[in-house]
Structures are given as structure tokens and as C-alpha cells.
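Researcher: If only I could read C-alpha cells as easily as an amino acid sequence. Walk me, if you will, through where the backbone shape changes along the chain. I have put the entry right below:
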Amino acid sequence: MRYAWCGAVACVIGGWWCTLPVLGDLSEYVKSEDSAFSWKSVNHTVNETGTVYTLHMVSQRWQNLSWEHTVTIYQAPQVRPQATMLLWVTGGKPNPISLVMGMELSRLGQTPVAFLYDIPNQPLLNGKREDALIAESFVRYLQTGDESWPLLFPMVKSVVRAMDALQEFARREWKIEVRHFVIAGASKRGWTSWLTASLGDPRVKAIAPMVIDVLNMPEQLEWQLRSLGGYSQMLRDYIDAGLVPMPQTERARRLWSMVDPYVYRQRFVMPKLIVLGSNDPYWSTDALNLYWDSLPDPKWVLYVPNAGHDLRDRQAELVAQLQRPLNTLGAFLRHHVYDNSLPTVTWQYQVDSTTATLDIRWKLGDNSKTRLTAARLWVAEAPTRDFRQATWKAQNLPCDDKVPQTRGRVSLPAQGCRALFGELEFQEQGRSYWLSTQIRIVGTPMKP
């Protein structure tokens, strides 16, 4: 089936023309009727760790394949259902780690949280998984022109159907109306979170996409060549499929315009928390700078220092490696459950012939229990603009709740490059969370 465009306009992205979907494509796919949708409760357990509800859901039929999912709701002890809950989008199946994570997020967010598994359903299309599966679905769209092929479409529809199921579940089980969701996920599930937000569904109250630092895809790929000296090897599935570099055909340009969240950026008016690893091997170190300024407010970023695609700070003790992303996502959720604003953070870089200066300002939100406890400047060095193997080191900066600003400085390197970003640590209800600035790279790359 080929879904209608429902009108289109022309735009320029990264110096080449593409067709920009307005109300069609993804939106039409998600809205299309599908009698396969169903859900049922299959398990309910209560113990000292909390309450777990398990649902089985069929979200749709895609390319004559039934998409089935496990949806698990984690409710920590002493936590009551609220009108807002987290919907964490993930792959695989429930496991002990997801149980611990789900209960901790429920406790931090003070609301039940739902994990939507099996995004995407896999293996499919001759045993393919993850990026290889997405790449294959893109290739099949290019071959056929069938706009239901891109795998992100059914991935997004699964999230929408999970919201439908969770609202019905809450009415039956808790006798309350869940009106809003904070949508979060990592990597391609973060990609899915961005695209779900593009639909304009009023139930999406906020989003927290993680480790998907690739908005503005055409510019990102060009920037990888300039910054990394080539495309990241983590994109090998797309390279092998002939999708990177992008084919210069009308259909290929249309494909990227349908799946690049940057195309829909003006629709992202909800609060956004972008969580990234400073050493993520998938992306250029300062990839955020190619789209941050184009995103509407409100928005926040968290860089986890010395962390890769799994967001584990490898310079921290084992029990603290995931503290930054977990605590900060929990605070983000809690603030939106209770409609309290997070602190706002603004910054400005100035670079002269010898020094890079970062000025950071902040304003505490309307939660009187929040206070600033630390400010840091994280700095790393590398011979080129590629900092994926670099070690980031912290410099403490002066901070005072009564003077909501601080400044960090580094000298420009005699050779090679130096990267820096600022971090503010806040504390609320006995728990720390962190917010960052953008990364800035200074210096001159050394010649090979």
C-alpha cells in the first residue's frame, strides 16, 4: 500500500532539495485503521520490590507480519498512579536489569512506568536485526516506492498503540485517567521517540531521546567526514546497504525527509531532555551543534562524561556508572508528573587567539526543594576533532545559589584539539541530577 502525501512543500536540507512531508507519510501510517490491534493482561505480581503488571499487545500488521509486544508496568512501593507516566521504548524482553531500572525510575519519578518491549519485532526479513533490519526496510522502500516499508513507521505506531493500551489498562485497573506520557528510549528507540513526538499527539507531554545524536542527517554525515576522517564504522549496516553516502535520487531524498526528525523540528514544542555519551562511537563529538539551536524551547542536554553508546561512565565506580542518566531521567519525569519546571541553563562560548571561555547561567525552577551543589568544566584532548577515545577530566567551577552564574576557561592547545563542556549538579529530595552545556572543540587538528 502506498500512503498519500497529503500535500508537500519543498525545503533545503544540507544543501540539497528534498520533499518535506506535512501531514502525510508517518502520520497517515499511524492513523491507518488496523484491526490487529489488541491487548490483554497476562500477569500481575506483588512483592517487597514493588508491583509488576504484564500485558501482551499486538500493535499492528506490517508487511503481513503481526507485531507482538510485551508491555510491563513497574510500580515501586509507596508510589501511586498519576495522570502522567513514563513510557520507555526498548528492544528485547523483560529481564532482571529492566526490573531494577523500571522500579528505580518509578521511585525517582513518583509514578508507575511502562516498558514497551520488542521495538522493533525481530529478527525479520531473512533473520535481520537492529540497524541491519532498518537498513533493509529502507532498501525495500527505495526498490518499491511503498511508503509503509521504512521500519521506523511501525516502530512509532507501536508506541502510539502502547499509549492506547496503557490508558485502557489504567481505567480498568486503577480507575484513573492517564492523560500524558513522557516518551523515552535509547539509540533507534530514541529515534522512535523523536518521530513519535512529531505526530503532535497531545498525550506526549515530554520526550527524552538518548544516544541518537544524528538529527539533520545530511549535514551530520558530511560533518563525520570532516571530523572523523570518514563515516563511523558503527554505521556499517547502512554503508553496506548503499544508504551512506546517501543516494542522490528523488526517492532516497524522500526517504530521509520522512525519517529524519530534524525535518519535523518545529513540532517539537514539548519539553525535551537529550541524553548523550561524550565518547559515543556512532557520532561526531559535537554533533549536537548541528541541530540544537533549531529546536524550540524548552530543552535540556545531559552529556555523560567518558561514556559511550551505553551511557556508562567508565571512570566512575561500577554502582555509579549509570547514575547520571538514570537520576536525571528520573528528575525529568518527576518534574513533569507534578508540573514543576526544571532549572533553566544557558551558556555562551567565547574563543580568542589564546583562550576558550564558557559562561554558564542558571535559574532554579519553581520547585523550592531544588538546589545547586556543584559546577564543573569537563575537558578532553585529542590530536584531531575525534574525541571518541579521549578521557574527559573535570575541573571544579565556583558556584553559589545566590550568584547564578559561573565561568570556566581553558587555553587553546599548542597543537591538536581540546574539547570542553559545562555541567551543573543539582540536588532534590536527597538525589543529585545533572544538566550540561553543548560541547565546543577548539584548536587545529594535527595532520596525519
